[in-house]
Write a structure and sequence with these properties.
Layout: E1 8-12, E2 19-36, E3 42-53, E4 60-66, H1 67-72, E5 83-86, H2 98-110, H3 115-132, H4 140-151, H5 156-173, H6 181-215
Helix pairs in contact: 2-3, 3-5, 3-6, 4-5, 5-6
Length: 216
């Protein structure tokens, strides 16, 4: 089977958020057994692993896909939908509202090129969380506190959430205010910690409890 040669592909860089033409640095492929044909012959497909370099930030991205995925996209590869091996991508539970997932992914796209925009979008993510959880209160601070009480989150979350809210406020309203990359990393960590408690942990607990019932 002839190896598919890809020199460049346009997709959104997971490092800097720019949608640009990435240069292929390395391509490896191998045959993967997928079953038998109607006459009993073994059927194989090609499994590709490709390393790309972003021309904007010079960071590397590793993508992996099988030949069958090309057919799924009508013979063309939409690299924004192809699995990214590196950098690793955060996966959220299916029942987490799309408004939160979409806002967070949008924030990640600007995290390194504009930390201040990242902080504003993270604040927007908190607002989406409040909306999804039916939080009550006159302002974002009160609504977030109602979630903490409702979910019985640790007291440390009060400080975490307040820091996120205040940085988002200052980023949006103070012209001379700046956010460092280190602060952006902290905001990212805090936001994921909240999502872990509110959505991911309950799902994992439910899965374990379900498996225990099956065993019993």
């Amino acid at each position: 089977m002839e190896e598919k040669k890809i020199k460049t592909e346009i997709f959104t860089c997971p490092h800097c958020g720019n949608k640009t033409d990435h240069k292929e640095l390395f391509c490896d492929s191998k045959d993967v057994f997928i079953g038998f044909s109607s006459n009993g012959d073994k059927v194989y497909t090609q499994d590709y692993t490709i390393v790309y370099k972003c021309p904007t930030c010079s960071n590397l991205t590793i993508k992996s896909f099988i030949a069958d995925e090309i057919d799924d996209f009508g013979g063309e590869i939409n690299m924004d939908y192809i699995h990214t091996i590196y950098p690793t991508q955060k996966e959220f539970p299916e029942d987490m509202p799309e408004t939160i997932t979409k806002t967070y992914k949008e924030a990640l796209r600007v995290k390194k090129i504009s930390p201040i925009s990242f902080s504003i979008l993270i604040r927007k993510g908190l607002e989406a969380l409040c909306e999804a959880q039916g939080a009550t209160g006159r302002n974002l601070k009160e609504r977030l506190l109602s979630i903490i009480k409702k979910m019985e989150l640790p007291n440390k979350f009060v400080e975490m959430i307040d820091s996120m809210r205040l940085l988002g406020n200052k980023s949006a309203h103070e012209i001379d205010f700046t956010i460092t990359n280190k602060q952006a990393e902290s905001l990212d960590y805090f936001f994921i910690a909240i999502i872990e408690y509110v959505y991911i942990a309950p799902n994992k607990i439910a899965e374990i409890q379900k498996s225990l019932k099956v065993e019993n």
